[in-house]
Amino acid sequence: MNTLLAQRKYRLAIRLSTDTAKTFGLWAAAAYALLQAVQGVFRVLTGFDADYGNYLVGFLPLLLLAISWVNFVKAYPSAIGAGMTRREFGTAYALFSALLIAAGFAFTQLIVIVAELTDSSAYDGFYGAAPIDALTRAAVYVTAGAAAGAIIVRFDRDLVKGTLAGVLIAMLLLRQIPLQIAASEAPSGDGDLVFFEFPADGVPLAPLDAVLTVAFVLIAWLALARAPMPDKKA
Amino acid sequence: MSFSATLRDVTLKYRDGDALADVNLDLEAGKIYGLLGRNGAGKTSLLSLLAAFRKPTSGEILVGGEPVWENAGIVSRVALIREGGDFDDSDTVKAAIETGQIRPGFDTAYALKLAERFELPLKKKVRELSRGKRSILAAICGLAARAELTMFDEVHLGMDAPTRDAFYKELLAEYMDRPHTVILSTHLIDEVANYLEEVIIVDKGRILRHEELEVLQDLGATLTGPAAAVDDVAAGLEVLAEQQLGGTKSVTVAAFGPGTRERAAAAGLEIGPVGLQDLFIHLTEPSRNGA
């Protein structure tokens, strides 16, 4: 009985991972295969050598964020209702998140490697193409999803939880702007107009994402620590 | 082993007021309790605290002698089944049942046996179930949890009368087979009264009464007999309910003392126990509690 109790957080992590792999994982793989097929047909018919895989690489972080957010909000009531503690759920979700980050990293790298094999230059300068970028990018979006999910379950009032989750996501999506402005206004900067492009030159996104990842993990953990069970709608 | 439960000076505040205020309560292990209260009285809040679904604003909650909050060894053996259950609606019924395996004591075979008996479609999604079937799924998961403290909060809602009866019988059979602590929170008071050993009445966030069922029922009586004789004995007493059929009358009265009992017996009236529901209505009457 004690072993079962000690291992249940791992079983929950495996269950969440398996369910995600069987749904979103298969859909992403199918979407990639479809894009490759369309790309191949276009190449044969028109000679146009496009790489549509970059659409997937571009949308992958948002997909990871959505998976992480939705899974948190759905799994939390089931787990607490079935007699789990928040600490156990947090550990299970951390393991699931680690696997999700690894899957996001592996998927991005797969697309980049396949593109390189076909001599595509579509990922030159693309944030997320280099291995370290692929890792930090996946990590920051997955943990942002978990933090947003934790905020949703932590607060009762729709206005509060909606605003806080919105601020968190805005922080994530606009994260490079303060750095761009700071870089421009620094003594070594040109002090000129700032053109927002993504990724911006001179903005170290990978370290920034690593820092934000730690911040989002802390937010998720703090929100989860006192999170109540969501009320049942009357 | 079944769990006792203790609340010491427990307060739970929401932003619009106190759900519970300075609640003290001791529940012995191995009994079936009825938790009664009007809408918004604090029943669900009380159960949520016992299941560590919420943290109290202040006070101490012990289950099985240990603090319940974030205590895996305890909460894994406490089950609070809320109306409709806490399921992932996109799961199939079978998957929802298997989610119960998070509890080390969960009896999947028993749950599947009950699912077959109550004709639950295992392959259907939870969101596709009718309200009644969803309530049955929740009740099944509660029974199969094999918890040491099991609480059912209005879980019968949507069930038809035969299903409710079958559920209560199954609950009793499970209780006889494996003694544990059960708390039933319900508005169908007379329907569960026969199963209860003790009754807790919550009113406006406080414990109004916590008594054995018999003690509570002795607070009043039902007098049945010729209308004139009944009216004579009941004169001056607080009448909670009355019915008349032809010349025969039946009244439920509160504060039924020994003297009145002797007069009623002398008048040849039949003296029965007071209905729990009538008593509950009387005890929680707003005018009675200064509301």
Provide an overview of this structure.
Chain A: Keywords: Membrane, Transmembrane, Transmembrane helix. The complex is a heterodimer of chains A (234) and B (291). Helices cover 76% and strands 0% of the residues of chain A. Chain A is mainly alpha-helical. Chain A has one domain. In chain A, 36% of the residues are buried. Chain B has 291 residues and is α/β, with parallel strands linked by helices. Chain B folds into two domains: 5-215, P-loop containing nucleotide triphosphate hydrolases (Rossmann fold), CATH 3.40.50; 220-273. Chain B is 32% helix and 30% strand. Chain B is built from eleven helices and 14 strands. In chain B, the strands form three sheets. A six-stranded mixed β-sheet of chain B has the order 6-7-8-3-9-10, with helices on both faces. A four-stranded antiparallel β-sheet of chain B has the order 2-1-4-5, with helices on one face. Chain B has a four-stranded antiparallel β-sheet with strand order 12-13-11-14, with helices on both faces. Chain B is globular, with a radius of gyration of 21 Å. The model of chain B has no long low-confidence stretch (mean pLDDT 92). The A-B interface holds A 1, 4-5, 8, 11-12, 74-75, 77-88, 156-157, 226, 228-229, 232 and B 14-15, 48, 51-55, 70-73, 75-80, 82-88, 90, 99-105, 145, 147.
